[in-house]
Every structure is written in structure tokens, then in C-alpha cells.
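FAQ

Q: What does a record look like?
A: Structure on top, sequence underneath. For example:
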């Protein structure tokens, strides 16, 4: 039973949430995927630390500021945040958890992406390439004894290797997802992804974290005006960079592009 103080706090939070909401796009509808929030044990190892921090209103990615309604797990290396389960992270990874089949994921972090790939019931197997053995060891400690993770890990193989040098088995992957960067909108994203993909034997599609910015930047360089941007810009950026970025047939790329513009604005004005 909640106390009066708890109810008042909940109401205040809800009011704040409504006031700050900004856009409220139907993300789960467009991407046909939920945002599942994993649970962790707070742990630290070497330079890395995973701990919970209080929930303050933070910008989403496609949407404006919001709160999660619970404490937030944050992964830091030497004090610098590498991954957190904040609205921005949850929303920005969502489009990439909707692929089906055998997944290849670069960058383990908190395993947020693999958790969501699994619980959206789309993956058959998930291979993760992570450079830092300490991240892998910390991750195993962080999920130890948590039942919801046991199901996920039945599907997962983690390989400790550098994305740019790893020699993976000569098998086929249905989708490749790359998130090895500390900051969003990394300028080297496209060239990094090209280098990574060149080493692969066979795969269907690739995507990477905050790639929406690369589509919009590609359009700017191609003298395509913002109001001329549409779904075909998405595929054209991939073709131009020799990267098979296609999502799936029938997907509403036009809406995705419209929201991607908002995503860029949200990060600039947050
Ligand atoms: C932002 S975190 C990934 C977060 C992850 N998407 C998640 O769901 O929690 C980036 C991860 O990539 C790893 N990483 C950085 N450079 C790498 C490289 N060259 N090869 C493999 N992993 C790398 C880092 O150690 C870190 O664990």
C-alpha cells in the first residue's frame, strides 16, 4: 500500500512528465518493438563501474525530455559514461532491436541491445564482439542470479576481440549492429562500419547507433533540402557508402526520416 507522500511524489512526477514530454511519437508502433529495461547488480571492476543513479528528466532521442520512473543503471569507465539506460539510449537503440534472425553485435556495454533483441523475440542467435575483457567480466557479475537474463544468455555468445581486427567464423549473419563509440553522432561512424563490414564473410543488413545523423548529413552533402528528405534517402545513403542498410519491406521510412530530424534537434537543444 502506498503512503500519501509516495502518491504525492508519483503525481508530481507524472505532472512533470506531462509538462516536459514534448513530442510523443508512437515508437513501439512504428518499430513494432517494446523498450525492455533490464535489471543489474551494481558492481565495479578495474576501470569500470556499474551503479544506479536517481532518475531526473532527460531528453529522449526521438522524443523530448522525460523520466523513466525508476533509478537508472549507468556504466562508467574512469568516471566517463559509456552506457546508461536513459530515455535517449532506450529510444536510439530501439530501431535496431527489431531485426530478426542471427545477429552480430559490436560493443557489449550493458548488454541493453542484446536484452531487447531477445525480448522482442526476433533474434535466433546473438554473437557479440567486445574489445575489453573487463567489460565482459563486469557484465557477467552484473547479471549473475537474475533470471530474466538467463533466458537471454542461452542465445548469446560473447567474443573478446577488437572489431577492426577480429576474424569471425565464415558464417552468415542476418543483421549486424555496431555501437562501439563513447559519444553519439561519431564522425567516424560510416568509415568504422565500412571497415568492420569488409571483414565479414556474409551478412544481409547493417545498422549503427545514431545512424540517423549520417543519413541527414549525407542528404545535406548531396544538396537534398530537408523538406525533400524521405525514405529513399535512407537507402541512397547506404548505397552511396556501399553499406546494405535496408530495414525491411513495407517499413514506413518516411515517418522514420521525419522523426530522425527531430532526434537531431533534440540533441542540439537538450
Ligand atoms: C556504448 S558501449 C555499447 C553499449 C551497448 N550497445 C549496450 O547495449 O549496452 C560501447 C562498447 O563498445 C566497446 N568497444 C569500443 N571499441 C571497441 C572495438 N574496437 N571493438 C570492440 N568493442 C569495442 C566498449 O568497450 C563498450 O563496451
Amino acid at each position: 500500500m502506498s503512503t500519501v507522500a509516495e502518491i504525492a511524489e508519483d503525481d508530481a512526477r507524472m505532472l512533470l512528465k506531462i509538462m516536459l514530454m514534448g513530442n510523443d511519437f508512437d515508437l513501439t508502433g512504428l518499430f513494432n518493438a517494446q523498450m525492455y529495461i533490464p535489471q543489474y547488480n551494481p558492481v565495479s571492476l578495474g576501470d569500470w563501474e556499474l551503479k544506479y543513479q536517481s532518475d531526473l528528466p532527460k531528453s529522449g532521442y526521438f522524443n523530448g525530455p522525460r523520466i523513466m520512473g525508476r533509478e537508472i543503471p549507468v556504466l562508467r569507465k574512469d568516471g566517463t559514461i559509456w552506457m546508461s539506460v536513459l530515455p535517449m539510449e532506450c529510444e536510439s537503440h530501439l530501431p535496431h532491436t527489431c531485426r530478426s534472425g542471427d545477429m552480430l553485435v559490436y560493443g557489449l556495454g550493458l548488454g541493453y541491445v542484446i536484452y531487447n533483441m531477445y525480448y522482442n523475440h526476433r533474434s535466433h542467435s546473438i554473437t557479440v564482439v567486445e574489445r575489453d575483457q573487463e567489460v565482459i567480466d563486469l557484465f557477467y557479475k552484473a547479471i549473475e542470479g537474475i533470471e530474466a537474463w538467463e533466458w537471454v544468455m542461452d542465445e548469446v555468445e560473447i567474443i573478446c576481440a577488437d572489431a577492426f581486427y577480429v576474424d569471425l567464423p565464415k558464417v552468415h549473419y542476418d543483421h549486424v549492429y555496431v555501437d562501439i563509440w563513447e559519444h553519439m553522432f561519431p564522425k567516424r561512424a560510416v568509415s568504422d562500419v565500412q571497415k568492420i563490414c569488409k571483414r565479414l564473410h556474409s551478412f544481409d543488413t547493417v545498422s549503427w547507433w545514431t545512424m540517423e545523423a549520417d543519413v541527414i548529413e549525407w542528404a545535406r552533402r548531396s544538396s537534398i533540402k530537408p523538406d525533400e528528405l524521405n525514405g529513399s534517402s535512407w537507402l541512397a545513403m547506404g548505397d552511396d557508402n556501399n553499406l546494405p542498410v535496408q530495414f525491411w519491406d513495407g517499413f514506413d521510412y518516411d515517418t522514420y526520416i521525419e522523426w530522425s530530424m527531430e532526434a537531431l534537434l533534440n540533441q542540439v537543444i537538450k
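Q: Is there anything notable about this one?
A: The mean pLDDT is 87.
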